[in-house]
Amino acid sequence: MTIGDERQGGRRRAGLKRLGACGLSLLLAFACAVPASAQPATAGAEDFIKVRLEPGVGLRTLSQRYLDNPDLWPIILSVNNVSDITELAIGQELLLPGNQKRLSASALDASLSEIQRANESGAQLYAPILIRNAIEFRDEATVRDREGIYVESIDLSSRAINRAEAARLKSEEQRDVEAEARLSDRQGWVEGQKTSENSWSERDLNAILNEQEKLRTLSRSTAQVVFRDASRLRLNANSQAVIQRMRVDPLKRREEAKISLVEGDFYALLATESDRNQLQVELENVDAKIDSGSFWVSQDADGAKFSNYDVRPVAITAGDETLVLGRNEGTVVRPGQKPGRKIGIQSRIALQTPADEAVVYGGSVDLGWDAAETSGGYWIEIAHDGRFDRMADSLWGIETNRLDDHPLPPGTYFWRVAALDDFGLPGQMSSVRKFELRTDDTPPFLQIRTPEPGAVLREAAVTISGETEAGAAVLIDGAVADIDQSGRFYLTIDAREGLNDVAVVARDTAGNETERRIAFDYVADQRADILYDRSLPRDAEGRFLSANEVLSLAGTVIGGARVSVFGAAGTPRSETIAAADGRFALNVPLSARGEDLAIRVTTVSGYAYEETIAAAILDEAPRLRPTEPLPQVTASALLPLAFETDPANRVAVNGTPFAMAGGVASGEVALVQGANTIEIVATNPVGLVTIEKRTVVYDTERPAVTAQEVSVEDRGETELFEIRIGATDASGLAQTSRYAVRSGTAEKDGVLRYNRARKVYQGTVELPRRAAGDVVTIVVELADVAGNVSQVELVR
Questions:
Q1: Strands 201-202 and 93-97
Q2: Residue 426 lies in a domain
Q3: For the chain, how many structural domains are there in total?
Q4: CA–CA dist 434, 384 (Å, integer)
Q5: pLDDT for 478-495, tens place per residue?
Q6: What is the CATH number of the domain that holds 387?
Q7: Given pLDDT bands bounded at 50, 70 and 90, which one contains residue 68?
Q8: Which one, out of 144, 324, 506, 734, has a CA that is 20 to 30 A from the CA of 460?
């Protein structure tokens, strides 16, 4: 079920009621509010809120609504033993922490206040173990609070309060003891030497320092000394000092100390609430009486250097002269010389990056700040706490106003920077900034809401939207998307025609990435003509032809479109889906020898358009008529042919296509000697065929003469000549042959007829009697059916 505001408010009032009922003290209040048995595995229903995941409500929304912070969404996954957001489903019941978070935050605040009270009472000096335990318990509580384990966080905060209170009470009881100091923080290698020791030895953290004890730091090392009144002195790298004298009057809260700086430098921050009587700093040939609560001093081969940051003075004596430094003033005392002039130290510079309270991911951090007016370098301090009691690193003489890729372990850090002038004097420290260095290798969650996978869109402008972690960046095909504080993002892109495959990448501040891909189709609302295959049979009127009652159509349209065919009355005839490249083919039943059909194209986006075609059934073989009869015999090597037929038909003779013009197919056929088969094939557009075969003889040989005979019969005044000529020919002989007779001056011609049975040409001619000695000449021309001619000359 979904928890309403009324029930939620009731639970809050119940939590406050339980907290108030315990009374007595803050410590007892937390003890009552969080019983020892209230662990996540056995917690009662009052420790959690049950909600049901509803459509449109993300984890960030639930975290904001019930935990007051949208960035606490991983806690919901942890409490419900869910490793990835994709495992959640709409309608799933989830457990959310109830009033534990608010109790945990209150407990953390109370423990911090109690620790500060203990420190102000001198707990670091008089009860170091107790106060360290209190700090450790609170650090652990902070981690548990961040992880969402609020019951453990509250329990650890209660322990921190207990230890801090004990430390404060112990410190107040032991204030009036012999003066001594403590090594409260050390970084790197720190050594010490007491008067009873013959050599230097390493000093442990919280080691007690006595009068006349020497202390030194090596390279990349620092050491912090804490006095009874919580005043602090930090030795920087390669420094050595001697605690010459420490005296304390507990009743009057007055302390006296003298420090001898052999070499190096230190920074001092004195307790402001103390009526410190005197702090003296002794250097080679230089003495300083310190009333200032904040100052820096160094000793090297170039002499002594001082910077005072407090309104109270620092009096420097060298030789017989004294120079008093006021606030933000410094000086350099050369070896064997009197104090030099006062120098105004560098003013405070501003920090740039990272921002205060920033979270930095990885194993290093980039620090940046404003450049100073002079170029003497910079002094950077990085600590685990805002008071710089626990130093993480101290870097002197950084040349530029940046520190890149500085390695640090994961944790919370505080940092500040001071500019150095040309004399090497550090200026005022900058304000303090805090950052957290985290190791994060968990990719951000990423959900894509629009468009839906596989969607088919009709507009080129496509908005891709979704949700990811707050603070993460989203790249859509490399372009940066707009994203709000809750992690909701969107970007409108111009889709490409067809399939679009878009990469969406969410990148968190730690550099972890999650990639999702969304595929969709974009099909523009535009009409594209149907391109029918040219091989489809059509007549002169453009009608699509079929040899039967089924018309086959094929062509190209928009890829993936639906192609539907309807009759004149709107009745569906056939339908298919075009391939991705737009190719389609379908068979359409025909209901008449000629009819009109509607072709409708519907794209994948739903856009539709139509066009009309005409179809006809052509089921008769083509007609074929020669323009002239084909000869049976010819003496010509090329036989010209021409046929009348439908212009849509194709005509081929002996496999050779004939040219079509005006409904006449014409061409020539090459003949070979003898009989030639002529095959004429006519094909109509739907493939029906008419075939005719003829034989044409190609003959170029003249008739052969097989016999020749002339006989004469005397008839008185005339003579009767009988002519017989035998002949043969492969292609056949002509039925007649011509002859011409000359006798003297007389001439006469005629025709001989062919006797097929005897295979001879024969005939008679009657001539006047010739004179004695005259010769009769007879010339006969023999022709075959191909027109070849042979001549025979007879003399009598």
A1: unpaired
A2: yes
A3: 7
A4: 9
A5: 999 999 988 999 999 999
A6: 2.60.40.10
A7: low
A8: 506
Strands 513-522 and 456-457, sheet pairing: parallel
Answer yes or no: is pLDDT of 28 > 80.
no
Assigned domain for 37 exists? yes
User: Do 19 and 141 share a domain, yes or no?
Assistant: yes
Residues 587 and 573 in one domain: yes
Residues 674 and 555 reside in one and the same domain: no
What are the DSSP calls for 156-212, one per residue? HHHHHHHHHHHHHHHHHHTSSS---EEEEEEES-EEEE-TT-SS-EE--TT-EE-TT
List CB contacts of 692: < 8 A, sequence separation 6 or more: 624, 679, 680
pLDDT at 614 (0 to 100):
93
pLDDT digits (tens, 9 = 90+) for 77-110: 766 777 677 788 888 888 776 667 766 776 687 7
Question: Is residue 522 a part of any domain in this protein?
Answer: no
Residue among 179, 207, 182 nearest 274 (CA)? 179
Q: Does the global pTM surpass 0.85?
A: no
Average of per-residue pLDDT across 256-268: 85
User: Do 187 and 302 belong to one domain?
Assistant: yes
What pLDDT sits at residue 248?
66
Strands 343-344 and 329-333: antiparallel
Q: Characterize the bridge pairing of strands 608-617 and 594-602.
A: antiparallel
The residues facing 382 across adjacent strands are 393, 415
pLDDT band, very low/low/confident/very high, at 42 (cuts 50, 70, 90)? very low
Shortest CA distance to 778 belongs to which of 707, 722, 717?
722
Tokens of 725: 């000529």
Domain hosting residue 790, numbered range = 704-795
- Averaged confidence pLDDT in the chain: 84
**Same domain flag for 606 and 753:** no
Structure tokens at 744: 């003297």
* Residue 525: inside a domain: no
Residue 164 and residue 122 in contact, taking contact as beta carbons nearer than 8 Å:
no
> How much is the average pLDDT of 318-326?
90
Q: Which of 446, 447, 457 lies closest to 493 in space, CA to CA?
A: 457
What does the radius of gyration of the chain's CA atoms come to, in whole angstroms?
60
Shared-domain flag, residues 289 and 325: yes
Same domain? 260 vs 305 = yes
**Does residue 275 sit in the same domain as residue 397?**
no
